Amino acid sequence: MSKPSPEVYEEGKGMDAHNSVMRDIRSRNDSTYDPREPTRVWLDEDNTPDGVYQSLTIILNTGGCRWARAGGCTMCGYVAESVEGGSVAHEDLMAQIQHCLDHEAENSDETSGLIKIYTSGSFLDEREVPAETRRAIAETFADRERIVVESLPDFVDEETVGDFVDAGLETDVAVGLETATDRVRHDCVNKYFDFADFEEASEAAQAAGAGVKAYLLMKPPFLSEAEAVEDMKRSVRRCGAVDGCHTVSMNPCNVQRYTMVEELYHDGGYRPPWLWSVADVLESTADEDVIVVSDPVGHGSDRGPHNCGECDDKVQRAIKDFDLRQDPSVFEQVSCECEATWDAVIERERGYSLPLAR
Ligand code: SF4
Ligand SMILES: [Zn+2]
């Protein structure tokens, strides 16, 4: 890829143009949401540096991401799910937490060792989650083993992260880095920060006694399948080399509503990644000194990562198996005729002619 020239950041071009398109697309959404209900909550199993835990994943409904209000990332539809008006009161956020605890009690006999909290933005941003609420949530879960809280790098500091460490929890900060390549993060994802900011946030988390989990995005718009695979392999390696970053969650892009990705998808300009591409990255980075997991959301559907339709469930199962065991041989046991199509796409698709096959 060529280096960006200064004019791509001029008004009406580059990031400014991306933001203006995204604001326009998002403004078409007129749904509203209840501030006392979380966006989503579910139970699962997760691989951590201490082994596999039952996990309770919570997506809190907060005022929404600041960056999304400016326009935001090309693939992110989360802001379409947040509360209108921009902020949610302490009592309402705590009611959402209670709703999640009830969900856990109704669906499992055991309490989850791992709690993962995401928002439609940054949990550590005090405009979304006030310090008082953050501390009350840390207290609520103080009897668990581990917690993951999501944040953009800007809000990671010793004080915010320290609340969870002080409650006796093994704490990880999940950062939506998306890619280690600044050019791809800026121009394809439309996310504003640099890899150096991620490194700084990792240092701050470590100073507070916490670890870091990097979230990567496979195949943002405008990248060919081969470029997307290479971008992920490089990114996993660079993240693995950052002190304190012990886990990478590498997730394929899916087509969310009210996003630029959706516009491109409808106009024939975007196809979510192949599951073979996910398998390829996991297999070839398995020797890195970092846990790499992936959770292909919407796998097998046209709007989610998919292969031919015949083998999607099989490959998805191998990926989930890899997540828990980190053993690349799981991929030797899956094959399908569509691998030949995928090979051809990897070899022939170019950024200006994609997608080559659907
Ligand atoms: S991906 Fe994160 S930073 Fe980007 S718009 Fe969505 S919530 Fe905001
Ligand atoms: Zn297939």
From TrEMBL:
GO cellular component: cytoplasm
Keywords: 4Fe-4S, Iron, Iron-sulfur, Metal-binding, S-adenosyl-L-methionine
UniProt xrefs under InterPro entries: ELP3, Elp3/MiaA/NifB-like_rSAM, RaSEA, rSAM_sf
An annotated GO BP: tRNA wobble base 5-methoxycarbonylmethyl-2-thiouridinylation
Domain (Elp3/MiaA/NifB-like radical SAM core): residue spans on this chain: 55-284
GO MF annotation terms: 4 iron, 4 sulfur cluster binding; catalytic activity; metal ion binding
Region annotated Disordered, chain positions: 1-38
Annotated Basic and acidic residues bias: 10-38
Required cofactor(s): [4Fe-4S] cluster
Protein name: Radical SAM protein
